[in-house]
Amino acid sequence: MASNLEYRKPQKTGQKRRNRETRQAYLFLTPALIIIIIFFVAAIAFALFMSFNKVNMFSQQFRFTGFKNYLNAFSDKVALKALSNTALFSFVVVPLQTLIALVIAYGLSSHAVKFKKTFRLIYFLPTLTSSAALTLIFMFIFNVAGPLNNFFMSIGFYNKPINFLQNPAYSLKVIMVMNIWSTVPTYMTIYLASLVDLPESFYEAAEMDGATSWDKLRYITVPYLRPITTYVLLTGIIGTFQMFDQAFIFSNGSGGPNNSTLTLALMIYNYAFGSLNTMGYACALAILLTIIIFAVSRLAEKINGGNGLQ
Fold first, then answer.
1. What is 69-303's CATH number?
2. Sequence-distant contacts of 207-210: CB under 8 A, at least 24 apart
3. Secondary structure string (H, E, C) spanning the chain
4. Which residues are listed as membrane-spanning (predicted)?
């Protein structure tokens, strides 16, 4: 009997200690949890509530409309255009920025490349620049009288300047180029940090088996980086589907020309703050955008699935 009591006592002491540590952990987490509940959970719940109402922000009146806001979103041609622009932007930018970042990181990981640190420093500088400043710079470059038109005309590539900013065929593509150029350095750095940890013995074993550089990239580097690629794809999808500031500055908030740069995030902003009676519709669009981002992210995660080399 005594032996049983001696055996159970340490167990009870250990359990009490774990309970005390758990209480202390929750005590330290309480301020952060309060902030999350107030500014995230409560905000999302309130937005969901407003999405089922017609809301007048001036008089703070709510009139329940059921799923009318959601049904209007599916029949709204402007909303469908914004969704089309957002999807096109994401499906072009995300694969290209991921591929370019991987190729540059793979090239910089080679021991034969000189001045790698200098190149990384210079190439990473655009990431430190604000998005608003980059947008203004690109608007200057692609202006009718900007350096890009002047350069192509000077070499005889074309005789008449192209209005990239006001032509619906080019406007969204300009933002794509800007976004790719400004985000590739970040993802390149992430890939490069992961390549540093890739065991050199993998490449040495492959070389002994007669593997070429392409074989090493395809069968060793890419599978090893698969978890990192999943992270890059997910953050890229979330970022591109939420693209707002570049389109807002580029079009002065209108989404022009001819709605060619109108994104869902910009449309939500315009409906939320551009009119007194459309906050409910804006909330419905925001909820739909959240669902779309979640669905596309899950799809990309499954397509790229796997844990890399085992």
1. 1.10.3720.10
2. none
3. CHHHHHHHHHHHHHHHHHHHHHHHHHHHHHHHHHHHHHHHHHHHHHHHHHCCEEEECCCCEEEECCCHHHHHHHHCHHHHHHHHHHHHHHHHHHHHHHHHHHHHHHHHCCCCCCCHHHHHHHHHHHHHCCHHHHHHHHHHHCCCCCHHHHHHHHCCCCCCCCCCCCCCCCHHHHHHHHHHHHHHHHHHHHHHHHHHCCCHHHHHHHHHCCCCHHHHHHHHHHHHCHHHHHHHHHHHHHHHHCCCHHHHHHHCCCCCCCCCCCCHHHHHHHHHHCCCCCHHHHHHHHHHHHHHHHHHHHHHHHHCCCCCCC
4. 25-49, 87-109, 121-142, 224-244, 279-300
Using CA atoms of 153, 157, 158, 164 in order, give the dihedral in degrees to the nearest 10. -80
- Give the contacts of 233 (CB within 8 A, at least 6 positions apart): 94, 98, 300, 301, 304
Residues in Cβ contact with 61 at an 8 Å cutoff, skipping those fewer than 6 apart: 55
pLDDT value, residue 17: 81
Tokens for 250, please give them: 């580029």
Whole-number pLDDT of residue 201: 82
Contact 254, 269 (CB under 8 A): no
The pTM of this model reads 0.83
Lowest mean pLDDT among 46-60, 69-83, 181-195, 260-274: 46-60
Q: How far apart are CA 86 and CA 262, in angstroms?
A: 8
Task: Domain ranges for the chain, please list them.
Answer: 2-50, 69-303
